[in-house]
Amino acid sequence: MSERIVIVGYGMAGSRLAAELQARAGDRKVTVLGAEPHHAYNRIMLSTLLAGKIDEPDVELAEVVGHGVDVRTAVAVTAIDRAAGEVCTDDGDRIGYDHLVLATGSRAIVPPLPGLDPLPERVVPFRTLDDCRRILAAARGARSALVLGGGLLGLEAARGLAARGLDVTVVHPIGHLMERQLDPAAGAVLVDTLAGLGVRTRLGVTATGVAADADGVRLDLADGDSLAADLLVLSCGVRPDTALAAAAGLTVERGIVVDDRMRTSDRRISAIGDCAQHDGTLTGLVAPAWAQARVVAQVLAGDDPLVRYRPRPMVTRLKAAGIDLAAMGDATDGGPAEELTFTDPARGTYARLRIRDERLTGAILLGDNPAVGTVVQLFDRGAPVPVDRRSLLLGRAFGAVSATPAASPALMPDAATVCQCNDVNKGALVSCWRSGARTADELSAATRAGTGCGGCRDAVAGIADWLAGAEPVEATR
Ligand SMILES: Cc1cc2nc3c(=O)[nH]c(=O)nc-3n(C[C@H](O)[C@H](O)[C@H](O)COP(=O)(O)OP(=O)(O)OC[C@H]3O[C@@H](n4cnc5c(N)ncnc54)[C@H](O)[C@@H]3O)c2cc1C
């Protein structure tokens, strides 16, 4: 009998695992159960959809799901019967498994404020395609919006709504924006950049309550002030969806605890993506979710008995038109390190580099800095920084040091990561070119580069142009 693999969650991790399994030979029956009524979509691109830069069909994930994979949408798993090796669904079915994979993601946190239970019509969290539809419906004909939460997603939502012509105010309880990625100085520059784009900020003040009716929303603040608007977007963080695992008696801390092979405390059950906690850490990003999906596929297909999930350093980028922001590593940590900063508030520019043992351990680059590609590569590969660091800090050449030595495709080493989300390096793109892929789209289809957050699409296009114009030179490693 073929092995029965059941995947709970048809989001970014679950759909990738299904595609990875489908691409591998073997006799197995894969069933994917997704609570949302949609085909798997690129959740990351909801910010871009909200900003009106793409349409709904553009967010659908291109994962091939066909022969050997049974996808059921709008079906939620309500319980796991570990003794019987079955999951129970909300449509009354019981589905047997030999191996179960939990890819249940996270849920938006709705703060316990008076006025939010039940959620009023004009108050919407920002996590799912349906949330995005509701925000867009409420924004139609609206003149103003409030966003509660000045983290990455809150700012993306705020920028998107401002781009649609709404008067937007972000309310954030901490004294500076994006405090997980930025230091106060960078946060201050970002406030000015946002103001120039029509987004106001209220920092260091907590919300105390919400009142909403057919005419609008009022957000009450702890300093006694109240803000009124046509809609309120909640962006107060996410919480891993661990309820099923906990009810089934699996070990759950902040997330579902997994080992290096993504196995939970029950060897017949794995967990991947936002719901999984590996080595004490939750990820909340797509690159680790997809890397974990590949590990589970390799384990289940028996490809590589030694395969292990190894976390990689992550780079956070804000996807908001008019704001260039990349943050990575321990940029806000005060531990011992060589520290370089440059601030030019008038031009919306801030840069901070932290260097230890000649390697970047963290960086914040806000505003136009041509060295951003180089900084990301040096950080990603743990490569030594140039002797003259000013080129990285300011993005300009000093003396013989090029500002962007690795930004030119010809000079990029083969090992340089081009697509962080899918972990695709330049060498992989060059070898696909040599195998016949001739355009950026073909390179993307062959390697998946550019199919995550989309931030590397220009780089993939640049590499395709360079390959088209020159016989690839032997790159350095
Ligand atoms: C607006 C936005 C922008 C983002 N931008 C970025 C970015 O730029 N870069 C980045 O790396 N990450 C970004 N993220 C985070 C990224 O989307 C997540 O890390 C990624 O989606 C995690 O994938 P997942 O499959 O674990 O979870 P999800 O994509 O959330 O999928 C989980 C799925 O499981 C389903 N499910 C849950 N419980 C059950 C059940 N009992 N039965 C059946 N189905 C169930 C859910 O309905 C959901 O469809 C962003 C997120 C949002 C919301």
What does this structure look like?
Residues 315-369 form the NADH-rubredoxin oxidoreductase C-terminal domain. Keywords: FAD, Flavoprotein, Heme, Iron, Iron-sulfur, Metal-binding, Oxidoreductase. Pathway: Nitrogen metabolism; nitrate reduction (assimilation). By secondary structure, this protein is α/β, with parallel strands linked by helices. The chain is 25% helix and 26% strand. The chain has four domains: 3-107 and 239-301, FAD/NAD(P)-binding domain (3-Layer(bba) Sandwich); 123-236, FAD/NAD(P)-binding domain, CATH 3.50.50; 324-396, FAD/NAD-linked reductase, C-terminal dimerisation domain (Enolase-like, domain 1); 408-477, Orthogonal Bundle (Arc Repressor Mutant, subunit A), CATH 1.10.10. Strands 3-2-1-7-19 form a five-stranded parallel sheet, covered by helices on one side. A five-stranded parallel sheet has the order 9-16-10-11-12. A five-stranded antiparallel sheet has the order 21-22-25-24-23, with helices on both faces. The relative contact order is 0.10. Bound molecules: flavin-adenine dinucleotide (FAD). Residues 8-14, 33-36, 43-44, 46-47, 76-77, 103-106, 126-127, 153, 241, 244, 273-274, 284-287, 289, 319, 453 line the site of flavin-adenine dinucleotide.
Topology (SSEs and partners):
Layout: E1 3-8, H1 12-22, E2 28-33, H2 46-50, E3 69-72, E4 77-81, E5 86-89, E6 94-96, E7 99-102, E8 106-108, E9 123-125, H3 129-139, E10 144-148, H4 152-163, E11 167-172, H5 184-196, E12 199-203, E13 207-213, E14 216-221, E15 226-229, E16 231-234, E17 238-240, H6 243-247, E18 256-258, E19 269-271, E20 276-278, H7 286-301, E21 315-317, E22 325-329, E23 338-344, E24 349-356, E25 359-366, H8 372-381, H9 390-394, E26 417-419, E27 424-425, H10 426-434, H11 440-447, H12 457-469
Parallel strand pairs: 1-2, 1-7, 2-3, 7-19, 9-16, 10-11, 10-16, 11-12, 18-20
Antiparallel strand pairs: 4-5, 5-6, 8-17, 13-14, 14-15, 21-22, 22-25, 23-24, 24-25, 26-27
The chain binds flavin-adenine dinucleotide.
Residues 8-14, 33-36, 43-44, 46-47, 76-77, 103-106, 126-127, 153, 241, 244, 273-274, 284-287, 289, 319, 453 line the site of flavin-adenine dinucleotide.
Cofactor: [4Fe-4S] cluster; FAD; siroheme
Pfam family, one: Rubredoxin_C
Family: Belongs to the nitrite and sulfite reductase 4Fe-4S domain family.
